Amino acid sequence: MKRGRPGRAHLTLISPSATDIKRPLIPFEPLPPKEQRIFSMVAAENPHLRQCDSVTLAAYAKCAVGLRNTDSASDFERLCRTLLAIARSLRISAQSRCHPKTLARHIDDEYVGPRPWDRDRETDDSDNDDEDDKP
User: Fold this and answer.
1) Domains of the chain: which residue ranges?
2) CB-count burial class (<10 Å; 0-12, 13-18, 19+) for 46
3) CA angle (114 as vertex; 113, 120 as ends), nearest 5
4) DSSP secondary structure letters along 46-82
5) DSSP letter string, 79-129
6) What digits encode the pLDDT tens for the residues 98-130?
7) pLDDT, tens only, 68-94
8) Distance CA 128, CA 116 (A)
């Protein structure tokens, strides 16, 4: 049984989400083909992005293409830092998309080996007693 006052949403035949039309993101200026592919792929994979994010997303695409075309280590590091900062601000990085508790539980389920809390404490205590008896 639901608590509270019943709403009128159950009286309509059309669900509220059916009327929401997600328009594809369009960059403000034309992008080269490689950048356009990255822009379109990231926009399609992340439905939370809006048209106002297209400028930042275009910068992300430019950094991603530039990262593949650079030869110097200093440029690579600078572009990589910029790419990660933009990804965090757009919330498209892996740590932004996944709740920390869920991620930790997933890693915990895959862990194979002895747990730190499962070790035998009696053997540890007997080793310490031998050291205390020595002068």
Assistant:
1) 24-111
2) middle
3) 165
4) -TT--GGGHHHHHHHHHHHHHHHH--SHHHHHHHHHH
5) HHHHHHHHHHHHT-SHHHHS-HHHHHHHHHHH--S--GGGS-HHHHHHHHH
6) 666 665 666 556 667 776 677 665 555 555 555
7) 989 999 999 999 999 999 999 998 887
8) 19
- Phi, psi dihedrals of residue 92, rounded to the nearest 5°: -115, 0
CB 47 within 8 A of CB 22: yes
| Short-list 6, 61, 9, CA closest to 38 | 61
Measured between alpha carbons, how far is residue 62 from residues 1, 51, 132 in Å? 53, 17, 65
**CA-based Rg of the chain, rounded to a whole angstrom?**
26
Whether the Cβ atoms of residue 86 and residue 66 lie closer than 8 Å to each other? no
Query: Is the Cβ–Cβ distance between 79 and 86 less than 8 Å?
Result: no
Residues 43 and 24: beta-carbon distance below 8 Å: yes
